Every structure is written in structure tokens, then in C-alpha cells.
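In response to the reviewer comment on reproducibility (Comment 2.3), we provide here a single inverse folding case reported in full, input and output, so that an independent group could reproduce the run without further information from us. The C-alpha cells appear first.
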């Protein structure tokens, strides 16, 4: 089999055409990269030891990746030209060459920012602004951009080459931190700024974010820096929606709540937007984690909002990655049929292993989820009346490495669910007591009105809970008495009074937070009101 360098010498390099270029594929090549799923090199590095160099490549060729993690090799050549070498899994090699702009047009998803460093070292500096290449534009934005810099807006215009990511406030914050930068704003302040200015969305390329980080004082991005880029977001065309994007919930005649998705992935959620996981308890990326911003666990919370693979609205779990989430305003229960639905996006639903828990410590293994729909009936694994606020997903897919390693989770929904209204025991009771305090009457009156609005055809469960301090016996008695006191108060404010009512005390056996901290113990001292809506009582958004 001929060496790659021998073939290149014989065949030469094809020149990219202005219409987008072409690529040749020789009959044989020496080797393929050994780790095509390795993380992409940063824009500050001309090469990375994370990639195994194919035999015969020029020593000056450096690795770059696209948004799917595929590896290419690029080399700066004379007169501002660039050569690109590609390899396929079956051992085929190809090569193209052209200007930087032609290369970007032909391979729009490649992160070509490492070329700027190589072009600097090669001395490929444009003589004047008219002759400036795309590489020079990237270098200018990377090395010198601050909000006060003259010409910064023009530099930003030139920097918007390559893949454009759609980011929310939290995912933008996470991505910048993963790139070595930081913000003068908190996640909450950044999120509020974006929601006020751009409907919560922010678009940027890696080149723009690198420029902001390097140009800002000590790498700390300010509100002024973000506002400099916001016109790009506001002027961006509507995002392309993938075929399997679930879209917003919609009302239909045969669903008492909201319907999400379409075709085989359509699902009715009786509690509508109350159905979704609300809190990340923990996330362990595992081996070969996904690349930021697609490794942000908060993207699995709330209603599904996936648009496309460049929109950071989902988390890719990574090899053996494990995500634990919690329902706070609802709770998973067993009903007839489907109980849990995982919004796993992409053309193929990748495998995950599912477990559920009532306390976040003892887990019931439900098994693997796979197939065209990620819906689960927990009935064979639980008892009627059991309630589960915790869900654990562990990646079981073999598709590891790259930007989107492992299963891609957009949302987690309890189809079989009860509405959960939680009352802080500190508001209701004095320490160690179960008599309702007078100052709690206003809150209980509001809760009674909310219960009454669901109608009489509902199932109500009143649960008392304590923290782990004190004996198990005293906690059990206290939790039962507190649950009885709350329902005695509420039932006197509701007309008609629901008939299907269960009152239980669980002591410290079902915590929702860590009893090792005062904050966690405060969350665990509570009375929960769980409501299963009846035929007339389903919630409507």
C-alpha cells in the first residue's frame, strides 16, 4: 500500500473552486487517525498530542475538528493557501487546497481557528486591510478584541465564520468557563440580560468567544462585551429546526394537558409544563465526555426545547455518563400505561439505563431504554401508591467521543404524575410542634383556593416529613401529626371537600435534600400536598 506522501506527490493537490470546492479520494492511504473522537485542540495550540498523526503527513499539518468531532489535518502553505487532508474509517485519504475563505465555504462546520497561530508563525501577514484574509480576521478578533477597541464591531463581523452556536444564558456561561474565561455577571444575571434583550438566546462562534475572552480584562467578560455581540443574535435568521425537534406543547381535544412531538414521538403529558424534571442532583460525565456546551446538565431540565445539533438545549451524557434529576413541583407515580418519557433527541434513540428512587439513595433498576420512543411503564417494578421524585439515567450507548458523545437528553417528563405542593414546616409549626401557627393561615388559605380550583374529582395525599435529627420514632409521630393538622385546616376551607384523601407520615425516610447541611435539613422539614387531577381537574396552561 503506497504511503500517503507518495500518493500526494504523484497526484498533487486539487484546488478548491469558488463554488465550494471538491475533494479527492485515492484508492488507498497509509493509515487512519487512531482517535477520531478526541477533543478538539484549543485555538491557542498549533497541535495536540490527543491526536495520532497518520503516517506520511507533513510535519507542519495540524489537527482540527468539526462540530461532530471528525478530525481533519490542515497545513498553511505559501501565498496564503491552505491544504486540507481527510481520512475515512475504511482507510481512504483525500486532499484539497485553496484559500482560507474557500476552505471555510467548503467545510463550514470546521473549527479552523488553530490555523491563525500557524499562519502567524509562517509570517503570512496581509499587507493591508483590503488584502486581509479570513485567517487575519480571526487573528485580529482573537488577539485584540475589547468593547472599547476601535473597529471592534468590524472585527466581530469578520469573526462570524464557521459554526454558529445557539446558547442560553447558563450554557453560554458554562461554555466560556470551559474555554478558560469568566464573567463579571452571575449565571442568573446573564440569563436575565439575554431574556430581556433577545428572548433568552445568544448566538456566537468559538472565534468570537475566544476574542472576547482574550480581549477582556483578565479574561472576564462584561455586560458591555455581550451587548457588543447581541446585534448578531438579534439579526440572525430563524434557526433551522430538525425533523425530530419536539416544539412547544400544544393543546388537543384528546389530551387533558399538553402534547409534545409528532409522529412516533408524540406524547400527551396530562400535567403539561408541570411534568418535567426541575433540578439536577448530580452529573458524572464518565469516559470520553462530550464537549462544552453539550455537557451542561441543566439542559435536561424543564420543557423540551431542542432545535438542532448546534443549539445547546440538550446534554450528551458521554460514555458511562450518569445524570440524576429530581422532580420538585410534581412526582412520578405508576398509572395505567406510560409513566415516564425521556426526550432523547437525534435521528436514532441511543440506549440509556434507567433507575428511579423515592429518596435519592435506594434505587429501583428499571432497565435499558431503546427504540423509536423513549417511554417507560414502571408498573412491573413498583407498588401502587409509591412515589418517585428522583430519576437516574446512565448512558449505555457505544457512540462515544466527539461533541455529542452518548445519549442526547433534552427533557425528562413524568407522564404518570401528581402535582406536588410543598409547605415549609418552619412556616407552619414551631420547632417540635404540630399545631398550626396563626401566621400560616394566609398561606393555607391560598393553598386551599388552589386545591379547590382543581375540582372535587381529585385524589389528594398529604405527607408529613422531617429531617434526620431526633429519633426515628419521634420523627414518625411528628410527621403524621403535622400531616393531619394541615389537612384538618385545609378541608375546612374547601367546598366541596375531595373524598379521596390519604394522610401519611414518613419521618426522615424520604429526604429531598442532603441532611448533612442546615439548608438541606430545612428543605426536608416539610408537608407535601400531592394531587392527582380527575376528569374535570386537569391543569390547563
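Designed residues, in position order:
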Amino acid at each position: 500500500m503506497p504511503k500517503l506522501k507518495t500518493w500526494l506527490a504523484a497526484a498533487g493537490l486539487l484546488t478548491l473552486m469558488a463554488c465550494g470546492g471538491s475533494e479527492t479520494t485515492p484508492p488507498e492511504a497509509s493509515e487512519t487517525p487512531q482517535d477520531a473522537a478526541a477533543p478538539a485542540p484549543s485555538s491557542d495550540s498549533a497541535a495536540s498530542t490527543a491526536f495520532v498523526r497518520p503516517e506520511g503527513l507533513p510535519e507542519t499539518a495540524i489537527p482540527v475538528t468539526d462540530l461532530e468531532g471528525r478530525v481533519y489535518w490542515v497545513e498553511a502553505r505559501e501565498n496564503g493557501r491552505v491544504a486540507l487532508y481527510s481520512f475515512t474509517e475504511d482507510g481512504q485519504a483525500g486532499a484539497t487546497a485553496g484559500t482560507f475563505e474557500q476552505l471555510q465555504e467548503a467545510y463550514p462546520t470546521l473549527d479552523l481557528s488553530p490555523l491563525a497561530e500557524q499562519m502567524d508563525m509562517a509570517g503570512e501577514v496581509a499587507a493591508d486591510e483590503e488584502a486581509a484574509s479570513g485567517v487575519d480576521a480571526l487573528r485580529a478578533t482573537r488577539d485584540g478584541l475589547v468593547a472599547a477597541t476601535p473597529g471592534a464591531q468590524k472585527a466581530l463581523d469578520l469573526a462570524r465564520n464557521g459554526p454558529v452556536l445557539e446558547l442560553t444564558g447558563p450554557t453560554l456561561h458554562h461554555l466560556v468557563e470551559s474555554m478558560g474565561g469568566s464573567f463579571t455577571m452571575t449565571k442568573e444575571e446573564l440569563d436575565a440580560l439575554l431574556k430581556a434583550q433577545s428572548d433568552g438566546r445568544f448566538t456566537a462562534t468559538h472565534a468570537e468567544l475566544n476574542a472576547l475572552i482574550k480581549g477582556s480584562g483578565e479574561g472576564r467578560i462584561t455586560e458591555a462585551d455581550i451587548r457588543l455581540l447581541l446585534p448578531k443574535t438579534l439579526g440572525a435568521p430563524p434557526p433551522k429546526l430538525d425533523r425530530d425537534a419536539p416544539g412547544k406543547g400544544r393543546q388537543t381535544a384528546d389530551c387533558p394537558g399538553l402534547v409534545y412531538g409528532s409522529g412516533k414521538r408524540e406524547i400527551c403529558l396530562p400535567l403539561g409544563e408541570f411534568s418535567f424534571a426541575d433540578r439536577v442532583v448530580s452529573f458524572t460525565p464518565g469516559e470520553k465526555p462530550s464537549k462544552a456546551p453539550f455537557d451542561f446538565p441543566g439542559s435536561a431540565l424543564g420543557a423540551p426545547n431542542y432545535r438542532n445539533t448546534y443549539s445547546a438545549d440538550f446534554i450528551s451524557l458521554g460514555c458511562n455518563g450518569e445524570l440524576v434529576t429530581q422532580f420538585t413541583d410534581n412526582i412520578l407515580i405508576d398509572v395505567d400505561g406510560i409513566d415516564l418519557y425521556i426526550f432523547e433527541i437525534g435521528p436514532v434513540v441511543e440506549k440509556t439505563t434507567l433507575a428511579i428512587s423515592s429518596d435519592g439513595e435506594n434505587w429501583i433498576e428499571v432497565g435499558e431504554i431503546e427504540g423509536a420512543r423513549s417511554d417507560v411503564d414502571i408498573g412491573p417494578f413498583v407498588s401502587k401508591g409509591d412515589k418517585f421524585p428522583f430519576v437516574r439515567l446512565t448512558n449505555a450507548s457505544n457512540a462515544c467521543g466527539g461533541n455529542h458523545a452518548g445519549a442526547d437528553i433534552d427533557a425528562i417528563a413524568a407522564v404518570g404524575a401528581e402535582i406536588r405542593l410543598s409547605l415549609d414546616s418552619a412556616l407552619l409549626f414551631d420547632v417540635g410542634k404540630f399545631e398550626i401557627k396563626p401566621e400560616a393561615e394566609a398561606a393555607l388559605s391560598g393553598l386551599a383556593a388552589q386545591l379547590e380550583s382543581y375540582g372535587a374529582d381529585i385524589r389528594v395525599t398529604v405527607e408529613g416529613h422531617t429531617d434526620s435529627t431526633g429519633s426515628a420514632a419521634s420523627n414518625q409521630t411528628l410527621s403524621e401529626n403535622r400531616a393531619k393538622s394541615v389537612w384538618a385546616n385545609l378541608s375546612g376551607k374547601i367546598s366541596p371537600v375531595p373524598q379521596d384523601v390519604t394522610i401519611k407520615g414518613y419521618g426522615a425516610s424520604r429526604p429531598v435534600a442532603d441532611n448533612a447541611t442546615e439548608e438541606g435539613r430545612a428543605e426536608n422539614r416539610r408537608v407535601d400536598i400531592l394531587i392527582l387531577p380527575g376528569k374535570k381537574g386537569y391543569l390547563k396552561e
